[in-house]
């Protein structure tokens, strides 16, 4: 993928000669940039917010809430079952 135009490139296009050709054709103003410029672009791209990262903490909280709800329901069900058994035994 080209970090400048976000164009998805094929496997054949990832050869150094074709990458340089893409840079010359589509980004002629960037041909004189040094390696550090492209490394910072890569770092920014990797650190960008994604859906997984944005919702990771939310889903963790939902999982904790779901687990707590399940445990409470399980306790209620066990208690109700025990009370039903005691009521039948006393009759």
TrEMBL record:
InterPro entries cross-referenced by the UniProt entry: Znf_BED
Start and end residues of each BED-type domain: 1-34
Keywords: Metal-binding, Zinc, Zinc-finger
Keyword hit for Metal-binding: yes
GO MF terms held by the record: DNA binding; zinc ion binding
Protein name (database record): BED-type domain-containing protein
Lineage, broadest ranks: Eukaryota, Metazoa, Ecdysozoa, Arthropoda, Hexapoda
